Amino acid sequence: MRVIGTVGLPGSGKGELAEVARNAGVPVVTMGDVIREECRERGLDPATDHGKIATALREEEGDDAIAARSLPMVEDHLESNDVVVVDGLRSGVELDRFREAFGDDFVLVSVEAPFETRAERLLDRDRDDSDTDVEALKKRERRELDFGMGDAMDRADVVIQNTGTLAEYRETIAKLFEEGPEAVAEADA
């Protein structure tokens, strides 16, 4: 059994890693989906209220609220799968929650890229308002770093620099799933 978590600033490539995992038959639990679902339950628009609800959940249920809500989904997938991806950790507190639950079977991968590269990717993606507005993106990054994302990135077991081509990045991700985090860490060093 292995649970692979991802952390990274918006546009770094976490979503692409998750998509490659899905295409390889690896189940993915997307922590952002927990927040989007809560937005809908509260009658709010996930595209505009995602950050507000992420903050509210942490205030109402604790800093590890999204991780806590994700754990049952991960455990359900582990009943019939050897590997599960958890997409989108945002803090060291969430990392601690997953390490407490899965011990050495939890591996955190930090996906990193320069701001300009990420901003271009987000412009192409256009999923929410911060994708098309550089100042909104900077504000979103500050919010996520305030959640403790920098701490989680610093504590990652593996760092993938996503600065090459999409094909190169997908090859690295495939290696992660086929050969394990150690192979990617060795290649990245």
From TrEMBL:
Has keyword Calcium? no
Q: Does the keyword Nucleus apply?
A: no
Keyword set, alphabetical order: Kinase, Transferase
Gene of origin? Answer: cmk_1
| Cited InterPro entries | P-loop_NTPase (IPR027417)
Q: What is this protein called?
A: Cytidylate kinase
TM spans, by residue? none
What does the organism's lineage look like at the top?
Archaea, Methanobacteriati, Methanobacteriota, Stenosarchaea group, Halobacteria
Gene3D superfamilies, from UniProt?
Answer: P-loop containing nucleotide triphosphate hydrolases
- MF terms (GO), sorted A to Z: kinase activity
